[in-house]
């Protein structure tokens, strides 16, 4: 699973901190950011988050991969606010949310998918009263993680088969077989679950 | 359209279609202008999942997909993932995804068999465009500190593409329902 996830192995204090604590701090930071405004606060928040990246020893390359999608909307948004509202407002708005996005990404980079899954299963336990079964949620997450590479393979196979035949037929010629194979795959998984006595309730 | 299915089959369908939505974002399939332009068809996957699985299972599959993204799998189109995407300006669209799928599924399955592509298209437009935009746009305006009008103008760039996706999704759903009358 580590190959598919974004987790960067390490032994920093941030890696060793429990996943639930990291998630709570992230939520607290998100709420706090609503009350702290201004360009200097935003720049300080960015500097602080970058320091945390250094503490966690996240390679520059990984940080850049995380930051690249931000540039897509961050740069036009910065330009918009500079023109309409001036520099101070632009830095305050864009800076604070670059900091938040990078902080959230840092939680992802320093926490194993398994550990986050455990937090999810524990977190939905209080929902048992409204009919949510935590065991089912855990099973679904595990099945979902497995379904991703399976369906990516199916989609790639259908695409390649279509290309080999000259690629005619438009998007439907690609999507219909992928959906039908997804339904067949689900039938197989369902039968396997029944055979193992899972999901009967 | 609904045949009683066991709970295990529901679990399998929800998990498999979460994988299906991910696959649509990860496998670049189209070169609409003759040269490779990455066209995101993930929102098409949301509409299709709602149409085929119905409101409850469809929304569950989309929620599971978002949970996998939040857990740190890079499954959004362009390989984005992790908790960061839920702090970005397009977070409203992510939150709107399961609701959009539920509305599409509810509209299509409420009408029942036989599936009509015209009604299907209507359902995709209501759920996948009207409902999705009405959740996505205010969140963008709020998070990016734009006026609502500026956010509406920015999003209108995507309407044409989404109408084409709704059209494709409606026709694909028709072909799938013909091939699998048991759904």
Name some characteristics of this structure:
heterodimer, A: 201 residues, mainly alpha, 2 domains, 8 helices, 78% helix, B: 183 residues
What would your notes on this structure say?
The complex is a heterodimer of chains A (201) and B (183). The model of chain A has no long low-confidence stretch (mean pLDDT 84). Chain A is built from eight helices and no strands. Chain A folds into two domains: 99 residues, no CATH class; 63 residues, no CATH class. In chain A, helix 2 packs antiparallel against helix 5 and helix 4 runs antiparallel to helix 5. Chain A is 78% helix and 0% strand. Chain A starts with 12 loop residues before the first helix and ends in a 6-residue tail after the last helix. By secondary structure, chain A is mainly alpha-helical. In chain B, helix 2 crosses helix 3. The radius of gyration of chain B is 16 Å and the shape is globular. Chain B has 183 residues and is an all-alpha fold. The interface between A and B is large, with 70 and 62 residues.
């Amino acid at each position: 699973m580590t190959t598919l996830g974004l987790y960067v192995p390490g032994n920093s204090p941030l890696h060793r901190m429990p996943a639930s604590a990291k998630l709570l701090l992230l939520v607290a930071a998100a709420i706090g950011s609503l009350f702290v405004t201004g360009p200097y606060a935003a720049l300080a928040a960015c500097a602080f988050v970058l320091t945390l990246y250094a503490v966690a020893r996240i390679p520059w390359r990984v940080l850049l991969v995380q930051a690249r999608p931000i540039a897509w909307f961050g740069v036009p948004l910065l330009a918009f606010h500079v023109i309409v509202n001036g520099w101070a407002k632009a830095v305050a708005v864009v800076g604070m949310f670059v900091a938040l996005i990078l902080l959230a990404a840092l939680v992802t980079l320093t926490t194993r998918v398994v550990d986050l899954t455990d937090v999810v299963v524990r977190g939905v336990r209080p929902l048992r009263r409204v009919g949510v079964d935590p065991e089912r949620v855990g099973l679904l997450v595990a099945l979902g993680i497995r379904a991703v590479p399976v369906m990516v393979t199916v989609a790639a196979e259908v695409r390649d088969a279509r290309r080999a035949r000259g690629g005619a037929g438009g998007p439907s010629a690609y999507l219909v077989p992928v959906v039908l194979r997804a339904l067949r795959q689900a039938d197989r998984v369902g039968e396997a679950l029944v055979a193992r006595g899972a999901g009967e309730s | 359209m609904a045949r009683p299915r066991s709970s295990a089959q529901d679990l399998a369908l929800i998990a498999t279609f979460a994988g299906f939505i991910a696959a649509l974002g990860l496998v670049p399939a189209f070169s609409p202008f003759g040269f490779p332009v990455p066209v995101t068809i993930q929102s098409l996957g949301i509409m299709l999942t709602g149409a085929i699985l119905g409101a409850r299972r469809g929304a569950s599959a989309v929620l599971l997909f978002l949970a996998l993204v939040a857990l740190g799998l890079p499954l959004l189109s362009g390989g984005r993932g992790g908790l960061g995407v839920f702090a970005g300006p397009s977070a409203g669209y992510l939150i709107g995804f399961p609701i959009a799928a539920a509305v599409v599924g509810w509209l299509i399955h409420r009408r029942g068999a036989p599936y009509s592509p015209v009604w299907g298209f209507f359902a995709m437009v209501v759920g996948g465009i009207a409902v999705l935009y009405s959740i996505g746009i205010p969140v963008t305006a709020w998070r990016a500190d734009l006026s609502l009008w500026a956010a509406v103008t920015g999003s209108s760039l995507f309407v044409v593409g989404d109408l084409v996706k709704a059209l494709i999704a409606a026709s694909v759903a028709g072909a799938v329902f013909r091939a699998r009358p048991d759904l």
